[in-house]
Specification:
The chain is an alpha/beta fold. The protein folds into 2 domains: about 300 residues, Aminopeptidase (3-Layer(aba) Sandwich); about 110 residues, Alpha-Beta Plaits. Helices cover about 35% and strands about 20% of the residues. The structure holds zinc ion. Zinc ion (ZN) binds next to loops. InterPro entries: Amidase_Cbmase (IPR010158), ArgE/DapE_CS (IPR001261), Bact_exopeptidase_dim_dom (IPR036264), Peptidase_M20 (IPR002933), Peptidase_M20_dimer (IPR011650). This is Zn-dependent hydrolase.
């Protein structure tokens, strides 16, 4: 069996754990997801790895290094999915990490530093509305009181769901590795967007992970009869909301070179009816970018637009921030090393920001971190038809293997003193 078949087989085994009819449903802390995790642990064991599961359900599978006491090099991603998601999101990074170990074993390569394969628990926010819980726990930023009573669609709280899997929410903090020395973390992930495919690149070297600022904007006008209210005497809340949405598009387009994006994804017309001028509208706005300055320019423009719309359309607008997170920049040294690897292997690559959050953004707190993207066909993700060609996955695994081998060699400076 060649490497290609071997990897396909491993990948297909993981995809069998699915409770949905459409696409893959393997939601965090459910039977399918736990069974999948157990199966993955057995596969790691078969490769001679020492396996453990931490207090949050993260799998840590370790291959010892040649030299005692050196900090480990970590690689991985997540096995949980959204409801009716695809086969690739997360699974690629976990299976790729195990494939790298298989290659090292096959070639008899002994690394100086230990290597760990990580499968993070509960990366997707689908079940409880919060994402990357496993990597947050590992990075020591799991806030149990914030999440304890979050409920899934069946009314089960996170605390209960953890307990059903034999985890205790009050012990999750013990999963923290803050006091540990970790050499580096690498995550291979599908792009979940159309850029690599459109530009015919095989690898995305991620420079930073965008973080969202989100607002709820309530626009109040006056509901009135659509037949009897003259056009110049209306206080139409929907038209105010529309103007805000269009201005957001305009300013985000002007920030395109910085990669900032802005979206109005929710628009609610209170008691909307065909014969009523809309009196009350709520929109929800999501603005993301890796450049704090660029994001701020969009925010400033949004503020000015709101004031203008309020004045010119005679509306009352209340805007409330829902969330504001800091963008994360990834290790410049790792980015440079990945670039060298791609150049040496003649792999077409692109430096790019990530518009979506990943476990890597929490791992930045623990160690230098790198994130590698492979193309997503048609940019589809969180969708049953999510797809990446096997050949493209193998290129991603090659880059992951190279970077892990590079970082698991002891620095020559330190070596002289051993
Ligand atoms: Zn993912």
């Amino acid at each position: 069996m060649d490497r290609k078949e071997r990897y396909q087989l491993l990948f297909d085994k993981i995809s069998q754990y699915n409770s949905g009819e459409k696409g893959i449903t393997r939601v965090a802390y459910t039977n399918e997801e736990q069974a999948c995790t157990q199966a993955f642990m057995r596969m790691c064991k078969a490769e001679g790895l020492d396996i453990r599961m931490d207090q949050c359900g993260n799998v840590i599978a370790r291959r010892e290094g040649r030299i005692k006491g050196l900090p480990p090099v970590l690689m991985g991603s997540h096995l949980d999915t959204v409801y009716q998601g695809g086969k690739y999101d997360g699974t690629v990074g976990v299976t790729a990490a195990l494939e790298v170990v298989k290659r090292l074993n096959e070639k008899g390569i002994e690394t100086d530093h230990p290597i760990e394969v990580i499968s993070f628990a509960c990366e997707e926010s689908s079940r409880f509305g919060v994402s990357t819980l496993g990597s947050k726990a590992m990075a020591g930023s799991f806030d149990k009181e914030k999440v304890r009573y979050l409920k899934d669609r069946n009314g089960v709280t996170l605390e209960e769901a953890l307990s059903l899997c034999a985890f205790e929410i009050d012990s999750v903090h013990q999963a923290s590795r803050e006091d540990e020395n970790i050499k580096a973390f690498f995550e291979l992930h599908i792009e979940q967007g159309p850029v690599l495919e459109n530009e015919n690149k095989k690898i995305g070297i991620v420079t930073g992970i965008a973080a969202p600022v989100r607002f709820s904007i309530k626009i109040a006008g006056t509901p009135s009869h659509s037949g009897t209210t003259p056009m110049n005497m209306r206080k139409d809340a929907l038209l105010g909301a529309s103007e805000i949405a269009l201005e957001l598009e305009k300013v985000a387009l002007s920030e395109q070179s910085c990669g900032t994006v802005a979206t109005v994804g929710v628009l609610d017309i209170q008691a909307g009816a065909m014969n009523v001028v809309p009196g009350e509208v709520e929109i929800k706005v999501d603005i993301r970018g890796t450049s704090v300055d660029s994001r701020q320019r969009v925010l400033d423009h949004l503020k000015r637009t709101i004031e203008l719309v309020e004045r010119t359309r005679n509306l009352e607008i209340i805007s409330q921030e829902i969330i504001s997170e800091e963008p994360v920049l990834l290790s410049a040294e790792i980015i440079e090393t990945m670039e060298t690897i791609c150049k040496e292997q003649d792999i077409p690559y692109k430096m790019m920001p990530s518009g979506a959050g990943h476990d890597a953004m929490n791992m930045v707190k623990l160690c230098p971190t790198g994130l590698i993207f492979v193309p997503s066909v048609d940019g589809l993700s969180h969708h049953p038809e999510e797809h990446t060609d096997l050949d493209d996955l193998l290129i991603g695994i090659d880059v992951l293997e190279q970077i892990v081998i590079h970082y698991s060699k002891m620095d020559s400076k330190i070596k002289e003193n051993v």
